[in-house]
TrEMBL record:
Its EC number is 6.3.3.2. InterPro entries: FTHF_cligase, FTHF_cligase-like_sf, NagB/RpiA_transferase-like. This is 5-formyltetrahydrofolate cyclo-ligase. Belongs to the 5-formyltetrahydrofolate cyclo-ligase family. It comes from the Eukaryota. It catalyses: (6S)-5-formyl-5,6,7,8-tetrahydrofolate + ATP = (6R)-5,10-methenyltetrahydrofolate + ADP + phosphate. One of its GO terms (molecular function) is 5-formyltetrahydrofolate cyclo-ligase activity. Its cofactor is Mg(2+). Pfam families: 5-FTHF_cyc-lig. One of its GO terms (biological process) is tetrahydrofolate interconversion. The keyword Nucleus does not apply. It comes from Adiantum capillus-veneris. The keyword Nucleotide-binding applies. It is an enzyme of class 6 (ligase).
Amino acid sequence: MPLSFLSCQRQTSYLPAQFSTVMSSIFEQKKALRSRIRRELRLRYPSLALEEDPMIQKYILESPWYKNSHHICAYISCPSIREVGTTQVVSDIFQKAETEHPKSLYVPWIQDKQSHLKFFHICSNEDLAANSMGILEPIPVKSDGSPREDVMQADVPIDLILMPGLAFDRAGRRLGRGGGYYDCFVKEYISHAEKKGWRSPLLVGMAYSLQILDEAFEKWISSLLPQKIIESKLRKLSKDDQAALLRFSVGAEIASRK
């Protein structure tokens, strides 16, 4: 049974007061780490984007797992929140839409403030509009008035999900920005794929080298991907773990080469 996005559920029993103290400590640790990473990104983002965006996207475009993926979920990168760029990857997907080995793209749309995220199919940048935060999102309704295809209603499985993260540790655990949107979506989609009898998609965490941390946060991380981070080359999981896909961060791969 493939793993999914998980909330840490330890077997330790706590009294209500102890539980409250533990959760408060976890919250403060995560808050401090997020603040630290955001501060470092503010200081270094221009040089990081200039140096690492081309390498990361080139790595993706040349990878066999990308070339073999037909249906892809990917975010539209937003410089104002200092995400790893996806412009070249998105353009490549559009260009390959009508080729012998076609690709299709599903892009995230924030449904509400309760961590609900939808992914809609788009065919070009004209299908996007900026939200209140300046992030480009798919327009839910097409120009002809018909609803845009939701990935949860698609009759084909997603092969690959490119997802942002604020930080990763070297074991592959992901720390998001705090909204829980990707946690909920990935958990829901993997469950959906299981019910359909589909293979779970490959999840790829997008991160700059400074977002790959030596410190482990397994004791308090809120979510993790069902795969393992790598630092030098792709490694296949053991046969016992074949249900879970290979997990890695492109940022970590590049950092290891420096």
